[in-house]
Amino acid sequence: MERKVTVFSNRKDRVPTGEICAAMAARGTPVEWVSMISDQSPEEAAAWTFGAFYPEGEKRDTTKIDVTFQTADDYFVVDDFRQEMLAALKKPEHEAAARGVQTVYSVSVRASLLAPGKSFDAAFDRTVRNLVVLLAEAGQGLIEDEDGAHHLPADYASQGRLV
C-alpha cells in the first residue's frame, strides 16, 4: 500500500534537490537525495532524474520518500480536469492557491513495506510532512492529502500524523 500526497505548485521550475536538503536540515528534519542512476556526474545526480529522498543516515526501503513531478499541463491532460479541480475547491483561499498551478509533485511512501500492524514513527512522519509543506511553500501552492482534502501549507503543517 502506498500513501500519497499531491502538491500543486505555482512555481514553474522544480525546487532543486540541494535547496530541499538545505531547507529540510534547517527545519530539523535533514534528508539526503539519492540518485538511482550510478553513472551520473555529481551535477546530474543532484538534478531531478531518477532517485528518492531519505531521512539523513537512514537509507532503507521503509524510509524512502518518492517525489515525482510533472508539469500541470501533463498532470491535468486536458483543461477540463483543471477546471473540475478548481470547481471542487470549497474555500476561496484554496482556489486562489491552485489557480496558477505550474508544477505538480507527488510525494509517496510505501506503507506496504512495514510489518503488519506497524506504522511509520513520528520522526519519519514529521520528515515527510515537512517535505510536503516545503514544496508547497516554495511554490505558494496547495496540498491534496490522500483523502482528497485540500490544505494550505500552514494548515497542513499543524495537523497530526501523515501516515
Question: Secondary-structure map with pairings?
Answer:
Blueprint: E1 2-9, H1 17-26, E2 31-35, H2 42-46, E3 51-55, E4 66-71, H3 72-76, H4 79-88, H5 92-98, E5 103-110, H6 122-138, E6 142-144, E7 150-151, H7 153-157
The largest pleated sheet is described as:
5 strands, antiparallel
**So what's the oligomer here?**
single chain
Order of strands in the sheet with most strands: 4-5-1-6-7
| Strand count | 7
Total domain count: 1
Model description:
This protein has 7 helices and 7 strands, in the order E-H-E-H-E-E-H-H-H-E-H-E-E-H. It is α+β, with helices and mostly antiparallel strands. It has one domain (2-157). Strands 4-5-1-6-7 form a 5-stranded antiparallel β-sheet. A two-stranded antiparallel sheet has the order 2-3. Strand 6 and strand 7 form a beta hairpin.
Task: Give me a quick take on this structure.
36% of the residues lie in helices and 23% in strands. The protein has 163 residues and is an alpha+beta fold. A hairpin with a 5-residue loop joins strand 6 and strand 7 (150-151).
Keywords:
alpha+beta; 5-stranded antiparallel beta sheet; 7 helices; 7 strands; two-stranded antiparallel sheet; 36% helix; 163 residues; 23% strand; globular
